[in-house]
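Quarterly update from the structural biology core.
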Amino acid sequence: MRRGLLAGLLGAGGIAALLASCVSGGSSTPERARTSAAPRPGPATPAPAPPPEPVRPAVFAFAGEIEQGGWIKGTVPGGTRTLLFNGTEIPFDANGVFFAAFDRDAGPTASLVARLADGRTVTRALAVAPRDWQIERVNIARRTDGPSEAFMRIRRPELAQIVAARAKRTGADGWRQDFIWPVKGRISGRFGSQRIYRGEPGSYHSGLDISSGTSGTPFVAPADGVVILAAQSPFSLEGNLLMIDHGHGLNSAFLHCSQILVREGESVRQGQVIGKIGSTGRATGPHLHWSMKWNDARIDPILLTGPMN
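Predicted structure, tokenized:
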């Protein structure tokens, strides 16, 4: 009775449609529509690999002034993990570039040794040329009494400040640059000059003296760096002392300033005015004493700048 009633209401076609709906879960979406979804995307195309970095050959390459008071700059052999200069480890940057220098009294030979990642070592011997220093021989005895204890009570704290400043590593990279003259003028004292007192050598001149003739002449940073010492009051010998770290153990000191225009910890750029020439401390007239050290080696600034034009 119920089936007949249902058939009467829906008819044969309606019953077939109702049964098809029940079998498909009640959805009225045609099968064709359900199977026409968008295809899944394929795997992404990988980015092209960067070109391999060039491999440095397993040899040293360098240039510079290989003489007493001079310097070298170069690149280490490919694969270097440790670099030794005269038996002491020295740094090199991510590109393998290093800096080293020779003391005023350096011996006739020096060595570079690179220890590679594969266990090999590469050694390069250097012949260090001697210098014909400006020597003055005087027929008077050298003083042997030395500084007084009263003077040393003043001097020791000053020396401690200088040593502490040179021990700072600021990350400066001025050592990479070609150095310029901090000021132009007459060279009144040359690096390495020395007096011999009746056969006994005195201390040699540790820097380069540049005379401007007048106090107050501005001078500039010879290369980028960070101020590691700016004297708050005149030192007994150096007067108003300014020191700049150029990085990798290389630093400059400027003595006898009439005025210091930068502060400790400040970064300076090559050519920036950093002070004014004076005659503070133990000086006979206004001039700039510019001295340079690389670690413990005293070097000649003129070998970094070239002759003054």
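The chain has a mean pLDDT of 87.
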